[in-house]
Amino acid sequence: IILHLDVLLIRLVMLCVCDLNSSGQMTDLLYTEKDLVTSLKDYIKAEENKLEQIKQWADKLDSLTLTATQDPEGFLGHPVNAFKLMKRLNTEWGNLESLVLRDTTDGFISNLTIQRQYFPTDEDQTGAAKALLRLQDTYRLDANTISTGNLPGKMKHKSHMTVEDCYELGKIAYTDVDYYHTELWMAQALKQLDEGEESTLDKVTVLDYLSYAIYQQGDLERALEYTKRLLELDPEHQRANGNLKYFQFQLEKQKKAEEDETGTQKDVSGHQIPERKKYEMLCRGEGIKLTPRRQSRLFCRYYNNNRNPRLLLAPIKQQDEWDRPYIVRYLDIISDKEIERIKHLAKPRLRRATVHDPQTGKLTTAQYRVSKSAWLTGYDDPMIETINQRIEDLTGLEMDTAEELQVANYGVGGQYEPHFDFGRKDEPDAFKELGTGNRIATWLFYMSDVAAGGATVFPDVGAAVWPQKGTAVFWYNLFASGEGDYSTRHAACPVLVGNKWVSNKWIHERGQEWRRPCGLNETE
């Protein structure tokens, strides 16, 4: 049993050194947790009489992991399941350790204690929690919807959050001085306690956080109301008694100030909607600006790119997605077999996404991208060269100077904030190391359907393109003059339910001199 557990824990070590935003690594963690539970059950058989509590724990997790591993990607596509996996491995397994240590046993505990440093960390658990909060904001989900698991989209593995789960989210928000989310999740924890859910937490603890979070947002009346409720449960609560007097004093002061105030309303008409708000609206399917007249000018067709020999007998289905910037989608452009091969090649190489630093021109870890990426070339598999040739046939652009095929996996809350693919005038060295000029165009394969969320949006023009497995979208980042098209600023919306696989090809200027001749007009 001990030798078997060593092997399992070494596997866990190898997995947890990677970032956990990819559904690929999260799937491996699920299998690892299932294996740990299996080993734990074997140990329990030898110590059954004195380890009854641990056996009950293992039975509960055995049922969960059995369901999860039957469809790991679907299970982890639900953000609550991913958060609870982080929480179990980071927090609850530690509680189990304390329980077993009371019996001073060997084998399992000694290995678990030594290897626990490789389990998901507090940072990983916090990251999973913040992913839930990010989804909550972007898609305007109330805490009860997330807690009950009733998220949009088709879900096989609905999961409920306990009072402890809600409290943990609220506490993480509190630590971040995010009192807005602290209130939402402490209120949800209180709601579930009021409804009779059994919990090791008491209402006094939750009310303490809740009242303070509401006070910090300036709502003294409600803060006072919850403080009074806390004192009904625990009249001797020292901090609550102090807060009661302070809130009453501040409330009187506030009311007096309001009576004397003769403030005027500010005119906020004509203000532009902030980019962040436009981005979130588009992610929810709101604010799309394509008028019926413009829609009538978008068409679909069979496309052979001016009678390209490879496309004459088998033209590709092409449809217009947007007019300005011009975005086209190619349907049935990559097969399921090719998708699975690309994913198989990419999974062992997935790393935290990087971007070009505009100041240095070098690759740096992206702070605004929550995904994992890998790079593939024709040397890795002849299929990649076939796919590159297909892109060249359809776009008419040279692929020898293009960047390698980048494969990205967006897991729980995975997103990419608004950005440009091309280098701007204030970033002259953006792609200097490549020596192939600026990024003239972007080709993006969608390698999975997404149950909810995950759109590619263009906030400046109000465009939204939704993932559709087996399709690809294409647009030019530069005008024919070489000037950047700033309307191509785009973002990847957070994945709400499911997981998202894409691969993209960034095509550069060098080699396109005869394929896309320069124009004199800066914006054409």
From TrEMBL:
| PROSITE patterns, sorted | FE2OG_OXY, TPR
Q: What is its main location?
A: endoplasmic reticulum
InterPro entries the record matches: Oxoglu/Fe-dep_dioxygenase_dom (IPR005123), P4H_N (IPR013547), P4HA-like (IPR045054), Pro_4_hyd_alph (IPR006620), Pro_4_hyd_alph_FE2OG_OXY (IPR044862), TPR-like_helical_dom_sf (IPR011990), TPR_P4H (IPR059068), TPR_rpt (IPR019734)
Signal peptide range in chain numbering: 1-18
- TPR-type repeats, residues: 204-237
Q: What is its EC number?
A: 1.14.11.2
| Compartment annotation | Endoplasmic reticulum lumen
Instruction: Recite the UniProt keywords alphabetically.
Output: Dioxygenase, Endoplasmic reticulum, Glycoprotein, Iron, Metal-binding, Oxidoreductase, Signal, TPR repeat, Vitamin C
Quote one Gene Ontology molecular function term: L-ascorbic acid binding
- PANTHER family xref list: PROLYL 4-HYDROXYLASE ALPHA SUBUNIT (PTHR10869), PROLYL 4-HYDROXYLASE SUBUNIT ALPHA-1 (PTHR10869:SF101)
Instruction: State the family named in the UniProt similarity comment for this chain.
Output: Belongs to the P4HA family.
Q: What is the name attached to this protein's record?
A: Prolyl 4-hydroxylase subunit alpha-1
- Origin organism is Anabas testudineus (Climbing perch)
